[in-house]
Amino acid sequence: MDLFTALAQRHSYRGPFQDQPVPRADLERIVQAGIQAPSGCNAQTTTFVIVDDPAVLRRIYDVLERPTLPPALIVCIAHPICAFRDMHFELEDCSAAVENMLLAITALGYASVWTDGVLRLDGKGEKIGEILGVPAERQVQVILPVGVPAEACSQREKLPFVQRAWFNQYGQ
Ligand SMILES: Cc1cc2nc3c(=O)[nH]c(=O)nc-3n(C[C@H](O)[C@H](O)[C@H](O)COP(=O)(O)O)c2cc1C
């Protein structure tokens, strides 16, 4: 799929998935797209745990209090470090990796949603980190479910270009 088609077709998908596994080769391709994302000072602070074992998926979704399992999850883990002087870039690094992966997920015909806010509630991110053996100094930041969507869905409407971007002068 052409990059600009993937940009247009990417959307947050929160519906059920078809009962169809995601081949590991596809999961590896998706995560490789995340690995290729830029990072501050090339510090590469984001690491990934790919979960396709139904028993582990169940434990994670129990923490998230969600009944229906996706075929796979990509758990993105941030390493909070000073990458340059006292500057932290791990959230931006993780975000860049996530967007690359969302586009790869779309290009391969799968769907996902950037799952972030819920991880910050009631220590859920930490609980998932414990299940996966994530070192205590690293943080489960974003989770991406991956699967073939069972329902049609499209990207939420965006404001028109003229309301969000300008040449040379803000608002002109
Ligand atoms: C930083 C960030 C955090 C997000 N957290 C969540 C989340 O926790 N749960 C969720 O369902 N969607 C989450 N989303 C997805 C947004 O709700 C979604 O991108 C937005 O509504 C626009 O829809 P679209 O992705 O279809 O364009 C998050 C997106 C971003 C960029």
How would you characterize the overall build of this protein?
It is a single chain. This protein is an alpha+beta fold and 172 residues long. Helices cover 35% and strands 15% of the residues. It has helices at residues 3-9, 24-35, 54-63, 90-107, 124-132, 161-164; strands spanning 46-51, 72-78, 82-84, 87-88, 139-146. The strands form 2 sheets. A 3-stranded antiparallel β-sheet has the order 1-2-5, sandwiched between helices. A two-stranded antiparallel ribbon has the order 3-4. It has a single domain (3-164), classed as NADH Oxidase (3-Layer(aba) Sandwich). A hairpin with a 2-residue loop joins strand 3 (82-84) and strand 4 (87-88). The structure holds flavin mononucleotide. Flavin mononucleotide (FMN) is lined by residues 11-12, 14, 113-118, 155-156.
> What's the end-to-end separation, in Å?
35 Å
CATH topology: the name is NADH Oxidase
Helix percentage range: 25-40%
CATH superfamily: NADH Oxidase
Calculate Rg over CA atoms.
17 Å
| The CATH C-level class name | Alpha Beta
Shape: globular
Strand content: 15-25%
Overall SS class: alpha+beta
Strand elements, count: 5
CATH architecture group name = 3-Layer(aba) Sandwich
Domain tally: 1
Helical stretch count? Answer: 6
Average predicted local confidence, pLDDT: 97
Low-confidence stretches: none
Bound molecules: flavin mononucleotide
Q: Biggest sheet: strands side by side, in what order?
A: 1-2-5
Largest β sheet strand count, sense and barrel closure: 3 strands, antiparallel
- One letter per element, helices H and strands E, the order comes to HHEHEEEHHEH
